[in-house]
Specification:
- This is L-histidine N(Alpha)-methyltransferase.
- It comes from Sphingosinicella rhizophila.
- Its EC number is 2.1.1.44.
- GO terms for molecular function: L-histidine N(alpha)-methyltransferase activity.
- 36% of the residues lie in helices and 24% in strands.
- It is an alpha/beta fold and 313 residues long.
- It has nine helices and 13 strands.
- The structure holds N,N-dimethyl-L-histidine.
- N,N-dimethyl-L-histidine binds next to strand 11.
């Protein structure tokens, strides 16, 4: 693509890619998987038969949001971290009937669309969107101040962070929400390695397309000539780290340039693109305790694949 038709590159994306490809262990942060195409592919992943996470969490929310609402009490504001299209939120909003909903998302476009759709569906609900990176300290709108507060962080997004970052985030959530607040969080469990790897390497190749799209994005946005067909998607279980890792593996020796910088990769070398940590029951509780949250209640499915955890600050 020539310079005139190429979309202007995000300097943070350029820096992360150039630094990540030059590092001794090549890695690009997972957040860059989510351009428009990547977000569409992730949406498709959530409907795959192998990707049990969304299905199981949705059932848990349908079954237990009523109990969550009873424990938290009436009149609570619901504050969602990384709300996206607010799909699962509807289940919580229907059960808890809160007066106030605060979706927090880095994408203003997503926030505005989701808020408009929700306003039509829940006419009595006040919606106060906050456009912010929830990894940074957040000032909540003043209407939240005198209310009970229920933080909502579904989708096992916590799993995409290493433990130290997860603790920092959970602690920041506690600071934003305040003492006495509740947090409802979705956490994926450690389980059979075949089940886990299939969830991240599905038969239809949607997760492979999601991962490989990162290379297309680099080519599109950063004046690069990466031979995408020389790579394959890999999903591997890292047992000591208790996580599924996504990698892009070079299938032959290759050379390419990104924004004028030259790179070479040998056959078998990989670019690490995502971590998805899985937690046993005690690990998840420890993570919460280390961040200042106490366990209130935990719900799991009959196969113990996924946990919905209610914690209190
Ligand atoms: C967004 N996140 C919780 C997903 C996960 O399961 O780690 C991202 C994903 N990557 C591949 N498949 C799904």
């Amino acid at each position: 693509m020539d310079a005139e038709t190429r979309p202007s590159a995000d300097p943070l994306f350029r820096n992360d890619v150039l630094a990540g490809l030059a590092a001794p262990v090549r890695a690009v942060p997972a957040r860059w998987l989510y351009d428009r195409r990547g977000s569409e592919l992730f949406e498709a992943i959530t409907g795959l038969p192998e990707y049990y996470l969304t299905r199981v969490e949705t059932t848990l929310l349908e079954d237990h949001c009523g109990a969550v609402a009873r424990i938290v009490g009436p009149g609570a504001a619901v504050i969602e971290f990384g709300s996206g299209a607010s799909i699962k939120t509807r289940i919580l909003l229907r059960a808890a009937e809160p007066p106030l909903y605060v979706p927090i998302d880095i994408s203003g476009e997503f926030l505005r669309d989701a808020a408009t759709a929700l306003a039509n569906e829940f006419p009595g609900l006040a919606i106060r969107p906050v456009e912010a990176d929830f990894m940074q300290p957040i000032a909540l709108p003043p209407e939240v101040r005198d209310r009970r507060r229920l933080g909502f962080f579904p989708g096992s997004t916590i799993g995409n962070m290493v433990a130290s970052t997860a603790v920092d985030l959970l602690r920041a959530m506690k600071n934003s929400l305040g003492v006495g607040a509740h947090l409802l969080i979705g956490v994926d469990r450690i389980k059979d390695v075949d089940v886990l790897t299939r969830a991240y390497d599905d038969a239809a190749g949607v997760t492979a397309a999601f991962n490989l799209n990162l290379l297309d994005r680099i080519n599109r946005e950063l004046d690069a000539d990466i031979p995408v067909d020389a790579f394959r998607h890999r999903a591997v279980w890292n047992d000591p780290m208790s996580r599924i890792e996504m990698h892009l593996e070079a299938m032959r020796d290759i050379a390419f340039t990104v924004d004028g910088a030259d790179f070479e990769m040998k056959a078998g070398e990989t670019i690490h693109t995502e971590n998805s940590h899985k937690y046993g029951p005690r690990d998840a509780r420890l993570l919460l305790r280390a961040s200042g949250w106490g366990l209130v209640k935990e719900w799991t499915d009959p196969k113990d694949r996924y946990a919905l955890i209610l914690a209190e600050a």
